[in-house]
Amino acid sequence: MKMRVFEDLDSFAPVAVCALQEQEAKHNLPLGILSGLQRHDDPGEGELLFALIEEDEGVSLVLLRTPPHNLIIAPTGLCSYASVRFAADQILQCRDIPGIVGLLPHSELFADYWAKATDVQAVLSMKQRIYRLTSVSSTAEAPGYLRRAARTDIPLLSDWLTRFAEEATPDESPPDSAEMARRLIDNQSLYLWVDGEPVSMAAESRPLRNTVAVNLVFTPEEKRRRGDATACVEAVSRRLLEQYSCCVLYADLANPASNAVYRKIGYEPAADSAVFKFVQHRRC
Fold this sequence. Notes:
Layout (H helix, E strand, L loop, with lengths): L1 E4 L3 H12 L7 H11 L10 E7 L2 E8 L5 E5 L5 H12 L6 E5 L2 H13 L1 E14 L11 E4 L5 H15 L8 H10 L3 E6 L1 E9 L5 E8 L9 H13 L5 E7 L3 H10 L2 E13 L4
Parallel strand pairs: 4-5, 10-11
Antiparallel strand pairs: 1-2, 2-3, 3-4, 5-12, 6-11, 6-12, 7-8, 8-9, 9-10
Helix pairs in contact: 1-2, 3-4, 5-6, 7-8
């Protein structure tokens, strides 16, 4: 068993993609980030990490980090507890990381081992279910229609993206919501459900050969419980399935309402994932 560290994206990406693409839906996050980096997305500031854990039979674990974000660990079918522990030992020798995200149970194993080895606390920030959709099974009843967001929507969407971040990732630094809205609109990847006025939003993200993710699903509190989010996600999903064989969606398991919406549309569980952050123990 060995850890193979790559100095550049061009040499890492083909090997990582080959290891993960058979389970594209489960690995849409790391594969989507790699695809974005190949399209010259901003990698952030700091030292990137591109690495693999290799065993005699092949790659067992893909490791990816774009600072300041968490380390992503993506296990293949060869991954075992020994692979995860070996990866943590190797990274301990050369890197400090704020947290990890990855499929369960591998991410939890890594977090527990890292916490014991570094005397920090591994805090579960979010447990998510990864859903996949190949055909829509419902017809939304909410009145309205879907349209792409336009630049005239930026003031509204800036507010919605800020509120989304406050609800979904309260421990992270708030985004530049106006710039984020402009970028999504210019990429034609942000959609609105309109019933007289915009009432819900959703976005497409991380397009790959077969799969594409649906994210940034948000309905303001004052417009919830009317079926608008269901209608929005269903309409976006239908549109995307005209181009891709599968839609992928990450849902916070602490939010049963959103999970029920996605299941109603036809999304089926593919895997569970978790986000852990590492924090110092309080000292008396």
